[in-house]
Amino acid sequence: MKKRAPISDIMTKKVITLNHTDDLETAERIFKSKKIRHIPVVSGEKIIGMLSYTDLLRISFADAVDEDEENVDTVVYNMFTIEQVMAKNLTSVSSTTTIKEVAEILAKKEFHALPVVDNNKLVGIVTTTDLINYLLEQF
């Protein structure tokens, strides 16, 4: 295992994002079709928040029963905007932050994804799943 390996080695570089003007119905469709759990929310090139699938489940039990269902019940979603539901006070890391440092952050915090930001531009996302897969590759 490399001691100083940068997070850029394991982060997702082709990041799926939401615009802050998108609606929650769009967000749920993306979560389900791409089988992901975290989506950075941007305004232009600047990241302004992070929306998790859990955030959607907190406001609606509509689709908690069948995650494979592609249809979305939008009644509750029409009552909220992405900006009202997303996490706003984000912790982010740079692409040169070590995998070990990222693991320490995620182990101590209550979230499971970190945006990777260089020069105020979103360049990737790293999740606890990325870290677990990295560890599995080491054995």
UniProtKB/TrEMBL annotation:
It comes from the Bacteria. The keyword Ligase does not apply. CDD domains: CBS_pair_AcuB_like (cd04584). The keyword Transcription regulation does not apply. Transmembrane segments: none annotated. PROSITE patterns: CBS (PS51371). Residues 11-67, 86-139 form the CBS domain. Keywords: CBS domain. This is CBS domain-containing protein. It comes from Xanthomarina gelatinilytica.
